[in-house]
Amino acid sequence: MKLFPSLLFISIWVVFDSLACCQRPAVVNIGAIFTFDSVIGRAARPAMEAAAFDINNNPRILNGTELRLMMEDANCSVFLGSIEAFKLIEKETVAIIGPQSSGIAHMISQVADSLQVPLVSFAATDPTLSALQFPFFIRTTQSDFYQMKAIADLVEFYGWREVIAIFVDDDYGRNGIDVLENHLEKKMGKLSYKLALPIQFGESEATDLLKKSKSLGPRVYVVHVNPDPTLRIFAVAGKLEMMNDNYVWLATDWLSTTLDSVVPMKGSILSVIEGVVGLRQHTPWSIQKREFLSRWRKMKQNGSVSTELNTYGLQAYDTVWLVANAIHSFINEFNNFTFSSTEKLLDMQTTGLQMGKLKVFNNGTNLLNKILQTDFIGLTGRIQINQERNIVNGGYDVININNISVHTVGYWSNSSGFSIEAPERHMGKKDSYSHLVQRLGSITWPGGKTERPRGWVIADNERPLRIGVPNRVSFLEFISQVHNSHGIQGYCIDVFVEAKKLVPYDVPYRFVLVGDGHSNPSYDGIAKMVAEDVLDGAVGDIAIVTNRTKMVDFSQPFFSTGLVILAPINDLKQSAWVFLKPFTVEMWCATAVSFLFIGVVIWLLEHRVNDDFRGPPKRQLITVCMFSFSTLFKRNQERTITPLGRMVMVIWLFLLMVITASYTASLTSILTIQQLSSPITGINSLITNNWPIGYQVGSFAYDYLSEDLHIPRSRLRALGSPEEYETALRQGPSNGGVAAIVDELPYVQLFLRDQPDFGIIGQQFTSGGWGFAFQRESPLAVDISSAILKLSENGELQTLHEKWFCKMGCLGSNGDKNDPSELHIISFWGLYLLCGVISLIAFLVFLLRMIRQYARYKRQQMQTSLSSRIKSHTRCSQIVFNFLDFIDEKEEAIKRMYNQHENPQPQASLAS
């Protein structure tokens, strides 16, 4: 019986609790946490109050349930923001709007997840606030992931490669800039420097930071700080003379938020940011938005609003409506909300903390799903949450401050990139994100110029570029120090100076000699000095090889080069078969065939009328074979009589004259040029022998021979000058010298110009070039490369080459003066073809004439002979033999035959 009262009480409590759950709530509490006294907060507070007022006075939503909005001030503090969040949760709020700070959002999101209270932020743009880590966090503003992608696209759009980022050192600043760095890397750009500011920075911190950045090369700045009505960054930049046409200033949407909030701004403030380009979260124009702006102006007139409306104010208004629509949908399905305490929080009461008052929102997951499913049109456009718990991206406006006013010069969206049309006009169209269709309006940059700024500076007069120059002691035509002067001269210096003239900007520099002046310096060491920032660049005969390209960037090669083998030569003019060298085998064969062909053709044309081409068969055969050869002499025994024969002879003599002159010139060249005579035939034979090998001090040949070709270092001999080259080669390997020298082709060509007793063996076995070295990612490397190409196209490189190397004979292009230039049939095929065609035509004319004469003769014979019918049936072979016999007869005999047939007499036999 004692249990009955207890059971009755429990039953009554359950019944009343069930009735309460089945009834629609009279009041629903939602909270809001943000910083009241801030650029965003001053617009967000009246906007949310207006939204709550509109909702409670709208009979189509909540059906009489009052939406109670409770707002708490975070005061820009994570600690105070967390305390205010606990206060709101104690009051059984079903959702919390805010915070505006990304740092506070990280903290409160963990509380919201634990107590299952949806947290809907209208201003926390930190891209690391992910749905995977914080499942109850929802964002109704655009993530900085997209904003930084827009900034990276803007940098790429104008062709800049390096950027300096200025940001506040908190979650919002750091994480946003990290995302920017990732986007730039994808576009082959680089975030060169990250300059962090304290959260509450002053003018002194900004001044120190910007002074430091002036010594850096890039001049493209991305400013990512909190909204600042005083625009301290740009005010300090103006004082430091950093708002001129040498600089580019890009700002994230903090600038547009600031400008939209305090418009109309004073002209003196706007003049500070002339030429700055920024982003603004895009909100499409609508009747609903226009009416709210009109309402806002009235609120400002009656004193209930102290600021202009910015994008975050519009998003705050829409966020309240988003939560209200979700609550409306939830109540229609589930009727009421319930909360419950947890044992862990109740146990914490013993510690003195009032954590037991906190309750878990039992319906938090259901309400969260309703928020995610909500889809409506608000002041900022379509309000729809994607799978990442972010609002569907609507793009950005690209703004430019010019003539003390803000101009929208274009738009950016994730699907279409830059366009002069608003993003909503691209909705439903096929993705057109292509570099070919990217467009923006005209932008006025700092300094008032409309031309795209260069965006970086190489050096200034206070700190000119340090250009290293090898202090050579040999082959001074390439580079050397002027005697009794600090000047530098040489072919490489002239190429650099002329190339620099074509660079479209001034580059202050000074030459720095590298080396002791007693031996050539290590060129690998020069490249290392550039890589370690001891030098800004290096100019000279610097070969572009693999290990150096890993340390520095090279310009376009201005001189082709490669390794060759230099060795002693001997005169081989005594060769017994040297007379055969002018022609190739094919040329000799074609010449022999042509001699025989012409002999046959001339014999055919002359045989019937010229006694020199008649006689016994043996004599005629000798005549055919020897006639063409006899034309090599001024007079020959056989003369041509027929017009066709003489025509063929004219063409043949012309061909013979050209061939004879070419043969004579080639043989003369062979007999006067020295040929190589060495047991070394190429790089392979040089490797297999154990003879010493010379190389030039400082050249990459040493590393190539020892590391790539695996030649023992004990075989390699360092040589420092052309005089040492000559001495070592003349001594030979048996007398303390070397068998050969491996060096770059230009040096060898210059050496051979004055040394006829030496030559190049084999072919060049490496290929490469000389270029100018610069530090990694230096823009000057690209511009100097373009200038070198222009010098090559306009012939200036060749002019400089002739200036330095043609005083005593130009350097050869291949350095191969050992093998004579043989004459190939391809050089004479036109003449051979002409001679053959003329000869063939003459033969055909002769043949047709003979056929005509033979046919006439046969007709006459048939008319006079009684046995013509029998002879008409003569076999074909007999006709051919008769025709050949007819051709073999002399012309006078044929004429006699004609006369006999015309004057009938006893016929004479053909054979007589």
TrEMBL record:
Localization terms from the record: Membrane
GO MF term (any one): ligand-gated monoatomic ion channel activity
Annotated Ionotropic glutamate receptor C-terminal domain residues: 466-807
InterPro entries linked: ANF_lig-bd_rcpt, GABAb_receptor_plant_PBP1, Glu/Gly-bd, Ionotropic_Glu_rcpt, Iontro_rcpt_C, Iontropic_Glu_rcpt_pln, Peripla_BP_I
Membrane topology, record value: Multi-pass membrane protein
Major localisation: membrane
Signal peptide interval: 1-22
Any one of the GO CC terms: membrane
Record's keyword terms, sorted: Glycoprotein, Ion channel, Ion transport, Ligand-gated ion channel, Membrane, Receptor, Signal, Transmembrane, Transmembrane helix, Transport
Glycoprotein in keyword set: yes
TM helices/strands, residue ranges: 585-605, 644-665, 829-851
Pfam families with a match to the protein in the record: ANF_receptor, Lig_chan, Lig_chan-Glu_bd
Protein family: Belongs to the glutamate-gated ion channel (TC 1.A.10.1) family.
Function summary: Glutamate-gated receptor that probably acts as non-selective cation channel.
Protein name as catalogued: Glutamate receptor
